[in-house]
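[Discussion] Sanity-checking designs against the backbone

I'm trying to build intuition for which residues belong where. Below is a structure token string of 356 positions. I'd appreciate it if someone posts a full sequence so I can compare it with mine line by line.
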């Protein structure tokens, strides 16, 4: 059977969630699928679960490698992809049963390189960024039309990707055990795609779990600066920098704020991160955050970067803008959770440990 869609699962120590994910994959309404599972050196029962499912379903192929990271595991699947389209899922999440069918039909109808879809986020903490939520069901071709896709941060599993498009443009994941191994993949894919179709359906369930990168803190997150340097280099290499410069700089400024505010609670880590940002700061970046419209650089992000470059008054202005940002987000938060977060932020400023 020639598969229409190849689903790739990079698996590492997710035995608690793996069966739910696999059930949502093998029971897709589209039967013509190939399922590639790359066991990235798991030390729990995940490999046995994979082999159990493979023994029952010939569409499942299991490959094993030493632990090299999620990006490396996804890249390891590339030589085995036989489907016209590729879908990259995470093994601690799950799919709606008609995801492949809906995305495949949309891809055929529009001849798109990518079909972008919405997802449902399962996170006990609503404080962090909202889910990927592109509007309208139109085909995006120009940089202006791709604004939402780039500024909202399109994850790999937010799209069905045409396999030959990935191969011909060498769109791959970053190797190694590192956060943001998928950032360059998604960004490069969106900017190089001639046609991106939008599917107005939430078909993927994204789980934020304890122990995941999204819940972790530490200096490993500093690599986001180098990651965006890689994106800039890619834009220059492809001759697309001028076309996407504003969107690239806006995304860069926004993610630096998010890492600082949401994932670096230690004052020492925050101070180190600001130093790391300054090391790569360019005059073009400074001019942009000062002059860009608020639609691209919100006030709290603008004030954050002015604080990095400025003195005492810039720091005061940052906290004023940050307070307005917190109040705006608080409207959507349960009161108990809001109080916990405010206390957590205050304690982090004082350098004290926090309790949930």
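Best answer:
Here's mine. Compare freely.
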């Amino acid at each position: 059977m020639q598969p229409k869609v190849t689903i790739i699962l990079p698996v590492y120590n997710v035995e608690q969630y793996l069966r739910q994910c696999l059930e949502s994959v093998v029971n897709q309404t589209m039967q013509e699928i190939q399922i590639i599972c790359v066991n990235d050196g798991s030390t729990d029962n995940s490999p046995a679960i994979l082999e159990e499912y493979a023994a029952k379903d010939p569409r499942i192929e299991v490959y094993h490698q030493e632990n090299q990271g999620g990006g490396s595991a996804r890249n390891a699947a590339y030589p085995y992809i036989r489907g016209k389209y590729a879908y990259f899922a995470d093994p601690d999440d799950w799919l709606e049963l008609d995801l492949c069918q809906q995305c495949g039909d949309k891809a055929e109808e529009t001849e798109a390189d990518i079909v972008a879809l919405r997802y449902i986020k399962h996170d006990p903490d609503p404080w962090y960024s909202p889910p990927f939520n592109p509007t309208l069901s139109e085909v995006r071709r120009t940089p202006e039309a791709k604004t939402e896709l780039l500024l909202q941060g399109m994850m790999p599993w937010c799209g069905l990707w045409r396999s030959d498009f990935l191969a011909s443009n060498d769109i791959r994941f970053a190797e190694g055990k590192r956060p943001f191994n998928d950032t360059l993949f998604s960004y490069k894919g969106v900017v190089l795609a001639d046609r991106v179709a939008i599917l107005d359906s939430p078909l993927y369930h994204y789980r934020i779990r304890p122990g995941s990168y999204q819940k972790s803190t530490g200096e490993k997150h500093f690599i986001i600066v180098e990651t965006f340097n890689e994106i800039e280099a890619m834009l220059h290499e492809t001759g697309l920098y001028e076309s996407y410069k504003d969107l690239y700089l806006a995304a860069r400024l926004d993610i630096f704020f998010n890492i600082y505010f949401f994932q670096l609670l230690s004052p020492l880590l925050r101070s180190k991160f600001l130093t790391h940002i300054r090391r790569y700061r360019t005059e073009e970046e400074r001019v942009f955050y000062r002059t860009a419209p608020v639609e691209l650089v919100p006030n709290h992000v603008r004030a954050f970067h002015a604080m990095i470059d400025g003195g005492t008054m810039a720091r005061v202005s940052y906290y004023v803008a940050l307070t307005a940002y917190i109040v705006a987000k608080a409207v959507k938060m349960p009161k108990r959770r809001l109080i916990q977060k405010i206390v957590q932020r205050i304690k982090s400023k004082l350098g004290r440990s926090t309790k949930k």
